[in-house]
Protein backbone atom coordinates (compact mmCIF):
# COMPACT_ATOMS: atom_id res chain seq x y z
CA UNK A 1 0.00 0.00 0.00
CA UNK A 2 2.90 2.33 0.68
CA UNK A 3 4.47 1.80 -2.73
CA UNK A 4 4.74 4.97 -4.73
CA UNK A 5 2.87 4.96 -7.99
CA UNK A 6 4.64 5.65 -11.29
CA UNK A 7 3.90 8.77 -13.34
CA UNK A 8 2.30 8.11 -16.73
CA UNK A 9 5.27 9.92 -18.32
CA UNK A 10 7.56 6.93 -17.69
CA UNK A 11 5.15 4.41 -19.24
CA UNK A 12 4.60 6.70 -22.22
CA UNK A 13 8.35 7.24 -22.62
CA UNK A 14 9.10 3.51 -22.29
CA UNK A 15 6.90 2.87 -25.33
CA UNK A 16 8.91 5.30 -27.50
CA UNK A 17 11.39 2.70 -28.73
CA UNK A 18 8.60 0.20 -29.44
CA UNK A 19 6.76 2.82 -31.51
CA UNK A 20 9.97 3.51 -33.40
CA UNK A 21 10.36 -0.22 -34.10
CA UNK A 22 6.74 -0.47 -35.31
CA UNK A 23 5.58 -2.77 -32.49
CA UNK A 24 1.84 -2.74 -31.73
CA UNK A 25 1.79 -2.65 -27.93
CA UNK A 26 -1.97 -2.09 -27.44
CA UNK A 27 -2.60 -5.74 -26.54
CA UNK A 28 0.15 -5.61 -23.93
CA UNK A 29 -1.37 -2.47 -22.38
CA UNK A 30 -4.78 -4.16 -22.31
CA UNK A 31 -3.34 -7.24 -20.55
CA UNK A 32 -1.82 -4.98 -17.90
CA UNK A 33 -5.01 -2.97 -17.38
CA UNK A 34 -3.42 0.22 -18.72
CA UNK A 35 -5.59 2.44 -20.91
CA UNK A 36 -3.68 3.85 -23.91
CA UNK A 37 -5.78 7.04 -23.79
CA UNK A 38 -5.13 7.35 -20.08
CA UNK A 39 -1.38 7.46 -20.68
CA UNK A 40 -1.90 10.76 -22.49
CA UNK A 41 -3.15 12.28 -19.22
CA UNK A 42 -0.04 13.92 -17.65
CA UNK A 43 -1.39 13.51 -14.10
CA UNK A 44 -2.22 9.81 -14.49
CA UNK A 45 -0.34 7.23 -12.40
CA UNK A 46 0.15 3.47 -12.71
CA UNK A 47 0.98 0.86 -10.09
CA UNK A 48 4.63 -0.31 -9.79
CA UNK A 49 3.68 -3.87 -10.77
CA UNK A 50 2.02 -2.56 -13.96
CA UNK A 51 5.21 -0.71 -14.87
CA UNK A 52 7.30 -3.83 -14.17
CA UNK A 53 4.95 -5.86 -16.41
CA UNK A 54 5.17 -3.25 -19.15
CA UNK A 55 8.97 -3.30 -19.22
CA UNK A 56 9.12 -7.11 -19.11
CA UNK A 57 6.54 -7.37 -21.89
CA UNK A 58 8.44 -4.91 -24.09
CA UNK A 59 11.76 -6.69 -23.50
CA UNK A 60 10.19 -9.98 -24.52
CA UNK A 61 8.35 -8.63 -27.57
CA UNK A 62 11.31 -6.64 -28.92
CA UNK A 63 14.02 -9.10 -27.77
CA UNK A 64 15.94 -5.98 -26.83
CA UNK A 65 16.89 -4.95 -23.30
CA UNK A 66 17.61 -1.48 -24.69
CA UNK A 67 13.92 -1.24 -25.72
CA UNK A 68 14.78 0.24 -29.12
CA UNK A 69 16.59 3.31 -27.73
CA UNK A 70 20.17 2.37 -28.72
CA UNK A 71 21.70 1.94 -32.20
CA UNK A 72 21.74 -1.82 -31.84
CA UNK A 73 19.72 -4.25 -29.69
CA UNK A 74 20.87 -5.92 -26.49
CA UNK A 75 19.35 -9.40 -26.63
CA UNK A 76 17.29 -10.66 -23.71
CA UNK A 77 19.51 -12.38 -21.17
CA UNK A 78 22.47 -10.04 -21.64
CA UNK A 79 21.89 -8.29 -18.31
CA UNK A 80 21.57 -11.68 -16.56
CA UNK A 81 24.82 -12.93 -18.08
CA UNK A 82 26.58 -9.74 -16.99
CA UNK A 83 25.33 -10.31 -13.43
CA UNK A 84 26.61 -13.90 -13.51
CA UNK A 85 29.98 -12.59 -14.69
CA UNK A 86 30.38 -10.24 -11.72
CA UNK A 87 28.63 -12.07 -8.86
CA UNK A 88 31.85 -13.82 -7.70
CA UNK A 89 33.91 -10.61 -7.48
CA UNK A 90 35.20 -9.79 -4.02
CA UNK A 91 34.48 -6.05 -3.94
CA UNK A 92 32.03 -3.63 -5.49
CA UNK A 93 34.84 -1.95 -7.44
CA UNK A 94 35.83 -5.26 -9.06
CA UNK A 95 32.17 -6.07 -9.77
CA UNK A 96 31.35 -2.72 -11.40
CA UNK A 97 34.56 -2.77 -13.43
CA UNK A 98 33.79 -6.28 -14.69
CA UNK A 99 30.19 -5.37 -15.49
CA UNK A 100 31.19 -2.29 -17.47
CA UNK A 101 33.90 -4.28 -19.28
CA UNK A 102 31.30 -6.95 -20.15
CA UNK A 103 29.09 -4.41 -21.93
CA UNK A 104 32.05 -2.72 -23.66
CA UNK A 105 32.59 -5.95 -25.62
CA UNK A 106 29.38 -5.35 -27.59
CA UNK A 107 29.18 -2.87 -30.50
CA UNK A 108 26.62 -0.03 -30.38
CA UNK A 109 26.49 -0.25 -26.57
CA UNK A 110 26.11 2.98 -24.57
CA UNK A 111 29.45 3.54 -22.81
CA UNK A 112 29.62 3.80 -19.02
CA UNK A 113 32.83 4.69 -17.19
CA UNK A 114 33.94 4.81 -13.56
CA UNK A 115 36.41 7.56 -12.60
CA UNK A 116 37.88 8.75 -9.29
CA UNK A 117 37.50 12.36 -8.17
CA UNK A 118 39.41 12.62 -4.91
CA UNK A 119 37.35 10.82 -2.27
CA UNK A 120 34.46 10.50 -4.69
CA UNK A 121 33.81 8.29 -7.69
CA UNK A 122 31.74 9.21 -10.73
CA UNK A 123 29.74 6.79 -12.89
CA UNK A 124 29.35 8.52 -16.26
CA UNK A 125 27.14 7.63 -19.23
CA UNK A 126 27.89 8.68 -22.80
CA UNK A 127 24.34 9.22 -24.07
CA UNK A 128 25.33 11.28 -27.12
CA UNK A 129 24.57 8.49 -29.59
CA UNK A 130 21.23 7.39 -28.14
CA UNK A 131 17.83 7.88 -29.74
CA UNK A 132 16.24 8.99 -26.48
CA UNK A 133 14.03 12.09 -26.86
CA UNK A 134 12.44 11.69 -23.41
CA UNK A 135 15.76 10.73 -21.72
CA UNK A 136 14.06 7.55 -20.52
CA UNK A 137 16.89 5.19 -21.40
CA UNK A 138 19.59 7.48 -19.94
CA UNK A 139 17.70 7.64 -16.66
CA UNK A 140 17.19 3.86 -16.70
CA UNK A 141 20.89 3.17 -17.16
CA UNK A 142 21.90 5.36 -14.24
CA UNK A 143 19.17 4.01 -11.96
CA UNK A 144 19.90 0.36 -12.81
CA UNK A 145 23.64 0.60 -12.16
CA UNK A 146 23.15 2.55 -8.92
CA UNK A 147 20.59 0.11 -7.55
CA UNK A 148 22.48 -2.96 -8.78
CA UNK A 149 25.54 -1.73 -6.88
CA UNK A 150 23.45 -1.13 -3.75
CA UNK A 151 21.97 -4.62 -3.98
CA UNK A 152 25.40 -6.23 -4.41
CA UNK A 153 26.76 -4.77 -1.15
CA UNK A 154 23.48 -5.05 0.76
CA UNK A 155 23.11 -1.35 1.52
CA UNK A 156 21.92 1.75 -0.26
CA UNK A 157 24.71 3.73 -1.94
CA UNK A 158 24.11 7.34 -1.00
CA UNK A 159 24.30 9.63 -4.03
CA UNK A 160 26.08 12.95 -3.60
CA UNK A 161 25.08 14.38 -6.98
CA UNK A 162 23.31 13.46 -10.23
CA UNK A 163 24.21 15.28 -13.45
CA UNK A 164 22.32 15.24 -16.73
CA UNK A 165 23.51 16.24 -20.19
CA UNK A 166 20.14 17.81 -21.00
CA UNK A 167 18.10 20.75 -19.63
CA UNK A 168 15.68 20.21 -16.74
CA UNK A 169 12.82 18.11 -18.19
CA UNK A 170 9.10 18.47 -17.53
CA UNK A 171 9.02 15.31 -15.40
CA UNK A 172 11.85 16.43 -13.08
CA UNK A 173 9.40 16.53 -10.15
CA UNK A 174 9.63 12.72 -10.18
CA UNK A 175 13.41 12.73 -9.76
CA UNK A 176 13.22 12.48 -5.97
CA UNK A 177 12.14 8.85 -6.56
CA UNK A 178 15.08 8.14 -8.87
CA UNK A 179 17.92 10.40 -7.75
CA UNK A 180 17.44 11.59 -4.13
CA UNK A 181 20.37 14.02 -4.18
CA UNK A 182 21.38 17.45 -5.56
CA UNK A 183 20.71 17.63 -9.33
CA UNK A 184 22.67 19.40 -12.08
CA UNK A 185 21.18 19.85 -15.57
CA UNK A 186 22.80 20.79 -18.89
CA UNK A 187 26.05 19.18 -17.69
CA UNK A 188 28.82 17.83 -19.92
CA UNK A 189 27.80 14.21 -19.23
CA UNK A 190 25.04 12.35 -17.45
CA UNK A 191 26.57 10.87 -14.30
CA UNK A 192 26.19 9.88 -10.65
CA UNK A 193 28.63 10.87 -7.91
CA UNK A 194 29.11 8.82 -4.72
CA UNK A 195 31.77 8.25 -2.07
CA UNK A 196 34.59 5.89 -3.01
CA UNK A 197 34.32 4.02 0.32
CA UNK A 198 31.54 1.91 -1.21
CA UNK A 199 33.95 0.51 -3.80
CA UNK A 200 35.94 -1.35 -1.13
CA UNK A 201 32.89 -3.07 0.35
CA UNK A 202 32.53 -6.83 -0.16
CA UNK A 203 29.71 -8.34 -2.20
CA UNK A 204 27.05 -9.87 0.05
CA UNK A 205 25.19 -11.66 -2.75
CA UNK A 206 25.85 -15.03 -4.38
CA UNK A 207 24.50 -17.32 -7.12
CA UNK A 208 21.54 -18.30 -4.95
CA UNK A 209 20.36 -14.76 -4.21
CA UNK A 210 21.14 -13.74 -7.80
CA UNK A 211 18.64 -16.27 -9.15
CA UNK A 212 15.82 -14.66 -7.17
CA UNK A 213 17.06 -11.16 -8.04
CA UNK A 214 16.98 -11.89 -11.77
CA UNK A 215 13.39 -13.18 -11.72
CA UNK A 216 12.13 -9.61 -11.99
CA UNK A 217 15.23 -7.53 -12.68
CA UNK A 218 16.14 -5.12 -14.04
CA UNK A 219 12.46 -4.10 -14.26
CA UNK A 220 12.05 -4.13 -10.47
CA UNK A 221 15.07 -1.87 -10.10
CA UNK A 222 13.24 0.77 -12.12
CA UNK A 223 9.75 0.39 -10.66
CA UNK A 224 10.83 0.42 -7.02
CA UNK A 225 11.35 4.02 -5.85
CA UNK A 226 14.45 4.88 -3.84
CA UNK A 227 13.48 5.43 -0.20
CA UNK A 228 16.13 8.08 0.26
CA UNK A 229 17.13 9.91 3.41
CA UNK A 230 15.56 13.25 2.49
CA UNK A 231 13.06 14.77 4.91
CA UNK A 232 10.30 14.17 2.35
CA UNK A 233 11.08 10.44 2.29
CA UNK A 234 11.22 10.28 6.10
CA UNK A 235 7.84 12.01 6.36
CA UNK A 236 6.26 9.68 3.83
CA UNK A 237 7.42 6.67 5.83
CA UNK A 238 6.15 8.27 9.03
CA UNK A 239 2.72 9.11 7.58
CA UNK A 240 2.31 5.68 5.96
CA UNK A 241 2.70 3.89 9.30
CA UNK A 242 -0.74 5.03 10.43
CA UNK A 243 -2.60 6.53 7.49
CA UNK A 244 -5.92 6.00 9.30
CA UNK A 245 -5.29 8.93 11.64
CA UNK A 246 -3.39 11.34 9.36
CA UNK A 247 -1.43 13.42 11.89
CA UNK A 248 -1.22 17.15 11.19
CA UNK A 249 1.96 19.12 10.57
CA UNK A 250 2.29 20.18 14.20
CA UNK A 251 2.10 16.58 15.44
CA UNK A 252 4.68 15.43 12.88
CA UNK A 253 7.02 18.31 13.79
CA UNK A 254 6.74 17.37 17.48
CA UNK A 255 7.55 13.74 16.62
CA UNK A 256 10.69 14.91 14.78
CA UNK A 257 11.60 17.28 17.67
CA UNK A 258 11.61 20.36 15.43
CA UNK A 259 9.31 23.38 15.20
CA UNK A 260 6.52 23.52 12.58
CA UNK A 261 8.27 26.53 11.00
CA UNK A 262 11.53 24.57 10.64
CA UNK A 263 9.68 21.61 9.14
CA UNK A 264 7.97 23.87 6.58
CA UNK A 265 11.27 25.53 5.69
CA UNK A 266 13.13 22.23 5.18
CA UNK A 267 10.35 20.87 3.00
CA UNK A 268 10.31 24.08 0.99
CA UNK A 269 14.07 23.72 0.42
CA UNK A 270 13.38 20.21 -0.95
CA UNK A 271 10.72 21.65 -3.26
CA UNK A 272 7.84 20.07 -1.37
CA UNK A 273 5.23 20.78 1.31
CA UNK A 274 3.46 18.81 4.01
CA UNK A 275 0.13 18.95 2.16
CA UNK A 276 1.74 17.83 -1.08
CA UNK A 277 3.36 14.81 0.60
CA UNK A 278 0.11 13.91 2.30
CA UNK A 279 -1.81 14.15 -0.98
CA UNK A 280 0.78 12.02 -2.81
CA UNK A 281 0.48 9.30 -0.19
CA UNK A 282 -3.34 9.46 -0.21
CA UNK A 283 -3.29 9.27 -4.01
CA UNK A 284 -1.08 6.16 -3.95
CA UNK A 285 -3.18 4.44 -1.26
CA UNK A 286 -6.33 5.21 -3.25
CA UNK A 287 -4.81 3.75 -6.44
CA UNK A 288 -3.77 0.64 -4.49
CA UNK A 289 -7.35 -0.05 -3.36
CA UNK A 290 -9.04 1.03 -6.60
CA UNK A 291 -6.92 -1.41 -8.60
CA UNK A 292 -7.81 -4.30 -6.25
CA UNK A 293 -11.54 -3.67 -5.74
CA UNK A 294 -11.23 -4.75 -2.09
CA UNK A 295 -13.00 -1.65 -0.71
CA UNK A 296 -15.95 0.43 -1.85
CA UNK A 297 -15.37 4.04 -2.92
CA UNK A 298 -16.94 5.22 0.33
CA UNK A 299 -14.65 2.98 2.42
CA UNK A 300 -11.60 4.28 0.57
CA UNK A 301 -12.74 7.88 1.12
CA UNK A 302 -13.15 7.20 4.85
CA UNK A 303 -9.75 5.53 5.13
CA UNK A 304 -8.13 8.53 3.49
CA UNK A 305 -9.74 10.92 5.95
CA UNK A 306 -12.39 12.45 3.68
CA UNK A 307 -15.67 13.22 5.44
CA UNK A 308 -17.65 13.02 2.18
CA UNK A 309 -17.15 10.72 -0.86
CA UNK A 310 -17.70 13.76 -3.09
CA UNK A 311 -14.60 15.43 -1.59
CA UNK A 312 -12.59 12.27 -2.35
CA UNK A 313 -13.91 12.28 -5.95
CA UNK A 314 -12.82 15.89 -6.46
CA UNK A 315 -9.40 15.33 -4.88
CA UNK A 316 -8.69 12.15 -6.85
CA UNK A 317 -9.62 13.82 -10.14
CA UNK A 318 -7.32 16.71 -9.27
CA UNK A 319 -4.48 14.26 -8.52
CA UNK A 320 -4.86 11.95 -11.54
CA UNK A 321 -7.22 13.52 -14.07
CA UNK A 322 -9.76 10.70 -13.54
CA UNK A 323 -12.59 10.14 -11.08
CA UNK A 324 -12.19 7.13 -8.73
CA UNK A 325 -15.02 5.33 -10.56
CA UNK A 326 -13.44 5.91 -13.97
CA UNK A 327 -10.07 4.72 -12.68
CA UNK A 328 -11.57 1.51 -11.25
CA UNK A 329 -13.52 0.89 -14.48
CA UNK A 330 -10.41 1.07 -16.70
CA UNK A 331 -8.51 -1.19 -14.29
CA UNK A 332 -11.11 -3.96 -14.39
TrEMBL record:
Superkingdom of origin: Bacteria
Kindly list the GO molecular function terms attached to this UniProt entry.
Answer: DNA-binding transcription factor activity; transcription cis-regulatory region binding
Q: According to its record, what are the GO cellular component terms?
A: cytosol
Keyword hit for Transmembrane helix: no
Q: Which UniProt keywords apply?
A: DNA-binding, Transcription, Transcription regulation
Gene3D superfamilies hit by this protein: Homeodomain-like (1.10.10.60)
Residue span, HTH araC/xylS-type domain: 233-330
Q: Which Pfam families match?
A: Arabinose_bd, HTH_18
Keyword DNA-binding in annotation: yes
InterPro entries, per database record = AraC-type_N (IPR032687), Homeodomain-like_sf (IPR009057), HTH_AraC (IPR018060), Tscrpt_reg_AraC-type_HTH (IPR020449)
- The identity of this protein, by name, is AraC family transcriptional regulator
Lineage of origin: Bacteria, Pseudomonadati, Pseudomonadota, Gammaproteobacteria, Pseudomonadales
Amino acid sequence: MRERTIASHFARAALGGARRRGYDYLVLLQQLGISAEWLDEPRARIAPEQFTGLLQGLWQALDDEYLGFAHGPSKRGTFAMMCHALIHCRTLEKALSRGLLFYSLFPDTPRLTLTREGEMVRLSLDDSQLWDPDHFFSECQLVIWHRLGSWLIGQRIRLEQACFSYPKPGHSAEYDLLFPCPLVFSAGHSSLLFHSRYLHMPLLQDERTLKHFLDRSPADLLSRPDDGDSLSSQLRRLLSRDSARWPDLEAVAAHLHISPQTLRRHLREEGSSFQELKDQLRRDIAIYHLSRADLSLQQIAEQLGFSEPSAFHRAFKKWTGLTPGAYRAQEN
